[in-house]
Amino acid sequence: GQQLNQSPQSMFIQEGEDVSMNCTSSSIFNTWLWYKQEPGEGPVLLIALYKAGELTSNGRLTAQFGITRKDSFLNISASIPSDVGIYFCAGQLPHAGNNRKLIWGLGTSLAVNP
Amino acid sequence: NAGVTQTPKFQVLKTGQSMTLQCAQDMNHNSMYWYRQDPGMGLRLIYYSASEGTTDKGEVPNGYNVSRLNKREFSLRLESAAPSQTSVYFCASIGVAGVPAAETQYFGPGTRLLVL
After folding, report:
1. How far apart are CA B77 and CA A93, in angstroms?
2. How far apart are CA B109 and CA A100, in angstroms?
């Protein structure tokens, strides 16, 4: 099925460093979502983006909806150990209709060294 | 609000056994989804229900059936489990939250299934 290209696949950083990850697609999306999944839990929504060019922050997290509507990035500033987890991007295609199905990236696994 | 709840949390089955995974949400959401998550594969949609009384196939529906019992509950059934169905299963529902209000997807904690 259709998937987003999410990169990098994994990151191992030092506490205090900034992190950047992104998702790209050959298709145009109406919505970009960024989720975080911690071990043994379901994904939790971090940031939702609904307009091209939109830049939204949630604490130390900042995400942008690309102007072309085909990409999005997530930045985490001043990483801390509790940022560890897998980060997923997800997009909703135009005309998704009543089903609201999402297209998912494969995730970026983040490890933070204290 | 409990949000999205799933039972059981863990299950071990033998090949050929059947079971039903339960999901319920108390947020009055219309749309509900079942995903499976496998290493390196991300989240793959099995079935979804846009509203009470309707269900549709997702990306990987083979070997599964679903029932949208009412607005709250959406169950996933494995009629004859196979080792390839070993996975973590997540239920999700879509609702509106935030300011300005916008649609977001809420996930349950998952059911870890091992088929021997």
Report:
1. 28
2. 21
Handedness of CA A16, A90, B105, B101 (dihedral sign): positive
| Sequence letter at residue A98 | N
What pairing do the DSSP bridges indicate for beta strands A61-65 and B42-49? unpaired
For chain B, the residues whose C-beta falls within 8 A of a C-beta of chain A are 4, 31, 40-45, 48, 50-51, 56, 58-59, 90, 92, 94, 98, 102-110
C-beta of residue B97 within 8 angstroms of C-beta of residue B3: no
Cβ–Cβ of B31/A104 closer than 8 Å?
no
Per-residue pLDDT of chain A (114 residues; tens, 9 = 90+): 567 899 999 999 999 999 999 999 998 998 899 999 998 889 988 998 989 999 999 899 999 999 999 999 999 999 999 999 999 999 887 765 656 678 899 999 999 999
The helix, strand and coil proportions of chain B, stated in percent and rounded to the nearest 5, come to: 5, 55, 40
Q: What's the CA gap between B21 and B50, in Å, rounded?
A: 19
Tokens 């749309």 belong to B31
β-pair type (A44-49, A31-37): antiparallel
